[in-house]
Amino acid sequence: MAQSKAATVDQYLDELKSDRRDAISAVRRVVLDNLPDKYREIMQFGMISYVIPLEDYPETYNGQALGVAALSSQKRYMSLYLMNVYGDPEIEDWFRERYRASGKKLDMGKACVRFKTLDNLPLDLVAETIALTPPAAFIERYEESRRNMASARRARR
Q1: 57-81 per-residue burial string, b: 16 or more CB within 10 A, e: under 16
Q2: Per-residue pLDDT in tens (0 to 9) along the chain, 157 residues
Q3: Residues 45, 39: contact at Cβ < 8 Å?
Q4: Which contiguous run of DSSP H or E holds residue 101?
Q5: Which of 3, 128, 131, 150 has its CA 20 to 30 A from that of 81?
Q6: Is residue 85 within 8 Å of 91, Cβ to Cβ?
Q7: Which domain holds residue 102?
Q8: Would 1 be classed as within a structural domain?
């Protein structure tokens, strides 16, 4: 599946083949069980997303809710997007080291952890990583990154 047009998480899950539905549902359960208060599960950008709602934080650069994590099923793999890992070298190093220690092979882009089966994903590490960043800390990091980007733009002029 490329990008889903599903309006709800249940509709998204219903679109998936049973093996993908089972795997995505299992990761979803881990995320929901460990998601700090004030985040909300929604459909955003064709994925199951975990966000700070606009009612709680409306000052985003694109007018969309600020996403900390997302789940999707792609053509050849499934993806778990961990925005709380992306952009923080200390957390990224911690995550990569813990993933290696799990004995599982990490296939990761900037924020995207790709996995073909549920067995490829250390769910205990997913739980820890999701629980790691309360919304206030995520907003603080987001605002700092926006300030840094603005400073870099001014320096290029």
Answers
A1: beebeeeebbbbbbbbbeeebbbbb
A2: 457 889 999 999 999 999 999 999 999 999 999 999 999 999 999 999 999 999 999 999 999 999 999 999 999 999 999 999 997 899 999 999 999 999 999 999 999 999 999 999 999 999 999 999 999 999 999 999 888 877 777 787 7
A3: no
A4: helix 89-101
A5: 150
A6: yes
A7: 9-156
A8: no
CA dist 130 → 1, 7, 27, 35, 39 (Å) = 25, 24, 11, 6, 11
pLDDT of residue 103: 97
How many distinct structural domains can be found in the chain? 1
Q: Give just the sign of the alpha carbon dihedral 14, 15, 19, 20.
A: negative
Here the CATH number for the domain that contains residue 148 is 3.90.1150.200
Query: Contact at 8 Å (CB) between 5 and 44?
Result: no
With both helix axes pointing from N to C terminus, report the angle between 123-131 and 89-101 in degrees, rounded to the nearest 10.
160
pTM here? Answer: 0.91
Q: Are 96 and 82 in contact (CB under 8 A)?
A: no
Tokens (6 digits) for 111 = 């924020």
Residue 95 domain flag: yes
- Find out whether 41 and 49 touch, Cβ atoms under 8 Å: yes
> Is 131 within the bounds of a domain?
yes
Q: How many CB atoms lie within 10 A of CB 37?
A: 6
